[in-house]
C-alpha cells in the first residue's frame, strides 16, 4: 500500500511538473467565483497566518494574501511552487513557499488560523490522512476551506466521472463524495459550518488538452464521453455535434469547517 501511494505521488509530481505553466494560466484554476469568496468565508484578521495546501498555480494563496499577515503555500511538486512564485511575487510579498506532502505536513500542531485546499484533493491517495493533518496544524477554532470536484452519490455516475478523469489525467486518484468528506471531517474533529455547490462547465478541447499527452489518449477520453447513456449525458451536460465534443459539466463542492475548541 505504501509503494502504491508513493507511485501515485510520483505521477502527481510528474504531471504537475510537466504542465506547471498550464495550471498557473488555466482559466479553470485562475478564475472562478469561489476565489472571491475565500476572504469572506474565512474571515481572516490582519495577524492571521494561513496555509494553502497543494497550491498549484497559487491562486488561492494569492486571494488570501491581502487579508493575512503570512500565507504558506505548499505543494508536493517543487517546479509547481517555483512557477507559482514567479507569477505571484509581483503581487504578494507575504507568501512563503514550502515543498510538502498534504498527507504529512511539515508544521507543528496548532500553527495556523486558517487552511485552504482548492481543486487538488482528487489527487490524494489518502484523503482521510490529509484531513487529519489539516486539523492537526490548525489552531483550536481555526477554519478549513475545501474546494474540489466531487462525485455524485449515484454509483453509476460516480464510476463514470472518475473513469473520465483517470483517462484524461493518470495522476487522478478519485473525486470523492460529500458523504465521504463529511465523515472524514467528523473523524478529525472538524465541524462543517457552511457549504455551496456549483456546476463547472468546461470547454472540452481546452480541458482535455491540459493534461493529455497524445492524440491516442484524447481519443480514449472522447470515446468514454460519447459512450455515455442519456441519463449520464444529461447529468454531466455533455454537448457534442457529430461526435465532436464541445463541453461538459462537473460538480464542485465548497465547504467551510472549523476545528473544535
Automatic annotation (TrEMBL):
GO MF annotation list: S-adenosylmethionine-dependent methyltransferase activity
Keywords per UniProt: Methyltransferase, Transferase
Any matching Pfam family: Methyltransf_11
One Gene Ontology biological process: methylation
Domain of life, source organism: Bacteria
Methyltransferase type domain sequence ranges: 51-145
Protein name as catalogued: Methyltransferase domain-containing protein
Organism: Bacillus aerolatus
Lineage: Bacteria, Bacillati, Bacillota, Bacilli, Bacillales
Amino acid at each position: 500500500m505504501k509503494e502504491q501511494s508513493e507511485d501515485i505521488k510520483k505521477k502527481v509530481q510528474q504531471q504537475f511538473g510537466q504542465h506547471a505553466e498550464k495550471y498557473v494560466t488555466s482559466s479553470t484554476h485562475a478564475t472562478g467565483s469561489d476565489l472571491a469568496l475565500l476572504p469572506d468565508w474565512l474571515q481572516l484578521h490582519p495577524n492571521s497566518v494561513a496555509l494553502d495546501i497543494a497550491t498549484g498555480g497559487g491562486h488561492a494563496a494569492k486571494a488570501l494574501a491581502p487579508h493575512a499577515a503570512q500565507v504558506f503555500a505548499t505543494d508536493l511538486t517543487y517546479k509547481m511552487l517555483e512557477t507559482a512564485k514567479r507569477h505571484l511575487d509581483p503581487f504578494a510579498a507575504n507568501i512563503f513557499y514550502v515543498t510538502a506532502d498534504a498527507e504529512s505536513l511539515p508544521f507543528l500542531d496548532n500553527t495556523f488560523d486558517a487552511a485552504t485546499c482548492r481543486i487538488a484533493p482528487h489527487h490524494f491517495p489518502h484523503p482521510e490522512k490529509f484531513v487529519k493533518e489539516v486539523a492537526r496544524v490548525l489552531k483550536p477554532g481555526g477554519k478549513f476551506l475545501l474546494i474540489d470536484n466531487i462525485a455524485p452519490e449515484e454509483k453509476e455516475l460516480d464510476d463514470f466521472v472518475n473513469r473520465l478523469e483517470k483517462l484524461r489525467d493518470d495522476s487522478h486518484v478519485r473525486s470523492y463524495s460529500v458523504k465521504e468528506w463529511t465523515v472524514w471531517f467528523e473523524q478529525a474533529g472538524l465541524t462543517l459550518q457552511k457549504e455551496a455547490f456549483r456546476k463547472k462547465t468546461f470547454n472540452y478541447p481546452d480541458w482535455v488538452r491540459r493534461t493529455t499527452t497524445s492524440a491516442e489518449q484524447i481519443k480514449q477520453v472522447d470515446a468514454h464521453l460519447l459512450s455515455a447513456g442519456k441519463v449520464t449525458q444529461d447529468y454531466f451536460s455533455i454537448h457534442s455535434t457529430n461526435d465532436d465534443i464541445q463541453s461538459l459539466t462537473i460538480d464542485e463542492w465548497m465547504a467551510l469547517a472549523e476545528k473544535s475548541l
